[in-house]
Hints:
There is one protein chain. By secondary structure, the protein is an alpha+beta fold. It has helices at 3-13, 19-43, 59-68, 74-98, 137-141, 164-173, 176-186, 188-199, 202-212, 252-262, 274-278, 347-358, 388-396, 406-419, 444-454, 473-482, 493-502, 504-508, 582-585, 626-645, 656-665, 674-690, and strands at residues 235-236, 242-246, 295-303, 311-319, 329-336, 366-372, 376-384, 426-433, 460-466, 487-490, 510-521, 526-531, 552-555, 559-568, 595-604, 612-619. It is built from 22 helices and 16 strands. Helix 12 links the parallel strand 5 and strand 6. Helix 2 crosses helix 3 (59-68), helix 4 runs antiparallel to helix 8 (188-199) and helix 20 (626-645) packs antiparallel against helix 21 (656-665). The radius of gyration is 34 Å and the shape is elongated. The N and C termini lie far apart (95 Å).
Amino acid sequence: MNDDELKALFERADEAPRPAAKEAALAAALRSFDEVQAEKNSANTQGSATTQRPTPEVHSLGSKIMNVLTVDSPFQRWLYSGMASAAVLVLGVFLALQLPLNKGFEPIEDLEEEAIVATPTSRTVEMNGSAEPRLNERQVSAMPEVVEVTAPSRLDAAPPSMDMAAEADAAYAAPAASVAKRAQLSDLAEIRAAGAQMAGASGAVLHEVAEETTPPFYRDKGRDAFEEIDSNPIKRVSAEPVSTFSIDVDTAAYSFVRRQLNHGVLPQKNAVRVEEMINYFPYQYPLPADRSQPFATDVAVIDAPWKAGNKLVRIGIQGYEMTGAQPRSNLVFLLDVSGSMNSPDKLPLVKQSMSLLLSRMQPEDTVAIAVYAGAAGTVLEPTPVKEKQKILDALGRLQAGGSTAGGAGIQLAYQLAEANFIEDGVNRILLATDGDFNVGIRDREELKGFVERKRESGVFLSVLGFGQGNYNDALMQALAQNGNGIAAYIDTLSEAQKVLVDEATSSLFPIAKDVKIQVEFNPATVSEYRLLGYETRILAEEDFNNDAVDAGDIGAGHSVTALYEITPVGSDSGVFANSRYTESSARPDAGKAGEYGFLKLRYKLPEESESKLVSQPIGIAQTSDATALRETRFAAAVAGFAELLRGGKYSGDWTYADVLALAQANRGDDPYGYRAEFVGLVRAAEIADAM
């Protein structure tokens, strides 16, 4: 082609197109553009494995683009069309990276990263000679400072459940869509950078990625683990006159029972611990005169409501109320962020609960946040509560995913608490979990031993349980009992308010530790007795005077209640037949004929290692004080209800209707509505039992 022919072609190109041809070409271009966009939308699932999100129509967008790019100059048409093609190509690549590549989501455990993407704000510490980071990428992005640690002791000596090579093999053996999903997550850092450059709004891009990679809620059933409990038997006073046990202020059993009943089902028998049902409620017992003796004891005797001829002996302990300036607190929130916590009643409720607790703390108190999933990490170094927003921001960034290295998390939490230890203050770890430890040390006895040794440092451990389906109550009870802390179960935000706000002083500030009760029954006036509850707290008789034996703790303002059912001598309500030889040998002592028994109580002040003794006789006179009668009868109603839920082995012909009548008549002052709620639960149990 020569220059003249080329010039002729350019002259023809500058001729104005015929209107009809121009309109036809424009319409064809619009149809082609819209068909491509419709094909893209139909081929890609957006954000959900089950349904697609509504997407806007593309016709108007296509029309605007084509109108803008329609010009008269050939050079302008060439330039603009090239720019538009490049923009569409970049946009297509960007959307392809952002949208899920398969219709189904894997459980969060399957999306666990095999390595942490290195960022300026994350670092790893060698674990047992080899670096093995196991937090997934989404969790790492939520942590300003991630530090993986391992204990120098046996606690972290066990190998992980699956080595990294095996996990990599499992990932590549998965379906192609799953492998693509893993590749997408592993390239998340590059996606962030590309999104920031292309869209100019990295925050929106990150939000979209997080939303579209969020797994479905964790669901499991039938794996709730409770320690097997055999109800305390009836004992002969002539054969075993002394009863010894450790006090218990835990309330986890009541909250779990309430959850089950609110779902219309009866709880499993081992989930019902009688003493925790009784001690869920505050009682109006006499307050101690001063702090020199941290609590007062009160004894009442009434007729047993479920068995004529028997008596109930109620022992009440009331701790003093804390007034004035509170001691400073050094708290570590140890939060389970594993995949099993991905449920509205687990991690989201944990974050809300911890936020509530901040409202009860003083500005100079400190809070640190440690988390664990496949590994343990520090999300927030010890931070003053006056920087509340910083703490809330750290909580808000947490997401659930991965396995559960609870042992490593506990070890890290103790390190944080000890590093920021406050003399003459409160140093406590709050472990929030469903108890599903499945990586590293899982043996309950080994974990108990570690926590027991650590309590000597002055750092105590309390446990807050969440969720159900794989709720490990047995492990959490063991940790709390050996860590000198409480065990509570948080099923609602209202329960979090009760435990962490309304009862914050009793939950956080101990006034006495290693509190033991011993009752010696008088064989001249009592033939049989049975302790209601406390099966997991029974001590040997010789343990009472041994200060090396651990027992329960009492917090400021706490009340503790224990009930004994006794059969007086001469009553025909006993279960044992009279002995030909031993019964006739019992002769009332003239000086002790007015006593059913003798109560002794040992305790230590929080900073002391030597116990003190409190004692008083248990008279046979029936209680006449109106307040004491009301409180004892309500406690009896709760105990009887718990016995019915456990099968009613010792409650005779007593029914839910009898529980309702006794509880309704003795509700008394109920400022928080706990007793009214109890009445509703009894009705729910009656309905569930009839189904």
